[in-house]
Amino acid sequence: MVNRRQLETYVNSARGRFEDLLGQMVEVPSISMDPSRAGDLRKMAELAVQYLTDLGAEARIVETGGYPIVCGGWTTGPGHPTVTVYNHMDVQPAQEPEWTQAPFAFANDNGLYRGRGATDDKGPALAALLGARFAVDQGWPINVRFLWELEEEIGSPHFSQGLKDRTAIPRPDSVVVSDTIWIAKGRPAMPYGLRGLLGARLMLRTGSKDAHSGLTGGAARNPLAELMEVAQSCVDAKTGKVKIPGFYDDVVEPTKAEIKSFLASGFNVKRFKQAYGFQSLRTNDPSDIMRRIWARPTFEIHGLTGGYQGPGVKTVVPGQGELKVSMRLVPNQTPEKAFALLKKHVAKVNPSVTVEREGMLQPFKGWFDGPYVDAVKRAAQAGFGKQPAFIREGGSIGAVVTMQKAWKVPILFLGLSLPEHGYHAPNEYFDWGQASGGMKAFAHYFAELAKMGKT
């Protein structure tokens, strides 16, 4: 159904347009967690609509009560299958001192596209869009819709509100998400599951102000020390084992077939350490690492604040402290139950500590086999020369769970990013090899769905 030579010619001819559009997108600092960037997020939405309409699609902005959603696409016929392609256009902040260039000044270094948002998630979004344009040009019987969010990096708080506009965002027959990372270059890996997330702040106030430790130390309670005691009661720092009673009760272990697929992903401990800058890990067993990052829940400590934070040592006993934590959750855990267990445990260890929830996302487990999975396998093979391994993703995408709940349709993943591209890291980039392969893979995926018809 796909003329490979014709597709190759199309992709090569689309390179200039891809690079021009990505450059424009990267230079819009669409940082959703920074309220001062609201104007840039609106500008990004307007540019996205323009890109869709310039390619011949219909497009519009859907208001959500927060930052908007951009939706649009091509409708070829009411009896044709409809696929929605999800990406996000908001980005992480870029304040790290390790940046070697201005993060929102696009740089094209002979096919390496540098700048915040290049790989997360603007480059993959454009690859999918240009792959769809080829499918439309071929006249294939498929409706391709795009759903571009602007709040993914803050947990998609208003995404469900946007989906209520059924006129602008109709229910599709399936969804494909392109916002995930391979395990290694040259070895496609497509997740079928995402961990959930629960964030929390543990706060303790024992005084109205900081006090001189020489005058009060020994008698005064130290909220930072007490919070560290609470943290130690929640998680084993060396092994990562969560010690909250009942925490593991609902965990579903991966099957032998799932583990076999994990092992086929090309995971390499040395590359993993290099990609994320680790000097050492809790384990060097590849199988154990993959279980830990994809299929097991976690308890992480992100920050401890209070007292003196400047250079040197100021001898005060803090009057208050705050511990910032989160849990990554797996099927069949829920953030609601995890939070209840956390509150109960902390109250037992230290009744003076207040626990406040800071956002939550449900875990997701999708399709591991079946016709849609087979279609993704064939598409990745056509785009990149190798079939993908099906893995789970350690991170969370709030919109995926929302779409699953609202539409109850198959949700598949066709990610294009690599670990070295720097998701959420300084010196983020994307590359033409992944972009061009992505265009081909998406074109083939749309051909597969058109051949499959409505199901």
Features:
metal-binding; Aminopeptidase; Putative Peptidase M20; alpha+beta; 21% strand; Alpha-Beta Plaits; 455 residues; 2 domains; single chain; globular
Describe this structure in words.
With 455 residues, the protein is α+β, with helices and mostly antiparallel strands. The model has no long low-confidence stretch (mean pLDDT 95). It is globular and about 80 Å long. The protein has two domains: 4-194 and 363-452, 3-Layer(aba) Sandwich (Aminopeptidase), CATH 3.40.630.10; 196-251 and 297-361, 2-Layer Sandwich (Alpha-Beta Plaits). A hairpin with a 2-residue loop joins β4 (107-109) and β5 (112-114). The protein has helices at 4-26, 38-54, 118-137, 159-163, 213-216, 223-234, 256-263, 269-276, 286-295, 335-349, 371-384, 398-407, 432-452; strands spanning 58-62, 69-74, 82-88, 107-109, 112-114, 143-149, 174-177, 189-194, 196-205, 211-212, 298-305, 316-317, 320-329, 354-361, 364-365, 389-393, 411-413, 429-431. The two termini are 19 Å apart. This is Putative Peptidase M20. It comes from Nitrospira moscoviensis. Residues 192-352 form the Peptidase M20 dimerisation domain. One of its GO terms (biological process) is proteolysis.
Outline type: globular
Count of discrete alpha- or pi-helical segments spanning 4 or more residues:
13
CATH superfamily of the largest domain: Zn peptidases
Spans of at least 5 consecutive residues whose pLDDT stays below 50 are: none
How many domains would you count in the coordinates? 2
Helix percent band:
25-40%
- Spatial order of strands in the largest sheet: 1-2-6-3-7-17
* The CATH C-level class name of the largest domain: Alpha Beta
> What is the CA-based Rg, rounded?
23 Å
